[in-house]
Structure prediction request, 89 residues.
Amino acid sequence: VLRGAELLRPSFKREKKRKGESLLKSVRQLIESVNDTLKGQLDLEQHGGRTFEGVAVRVAQRILAMAAAIWHNHKTGQPVIRSLIAYDH
Prediction:
């Protein structure tokens, strides 16, 4: 435990249940959902970056563009035809 942070991990079959283990499934599902959105909707697997900085810029551009579209639709009162967050083509 460093600075009050504790690593959570599932218990092995022969171990008793660990503290916080019940949270792991929902957190993992959330992380997998975010990763799937980033890879699918934003097409991050074909980012085209050649360096770490290039990849970071392209990822940031796509996330910012999606956030701007969601913000714009919310501020202008656009009807929700489909969720921009959960849409995967």
The radius of gyration is 18 Å. Residues 22-75 form one domain. Helices lie at 21-40, 52-75. The first helix runs from residue 21 to 40.
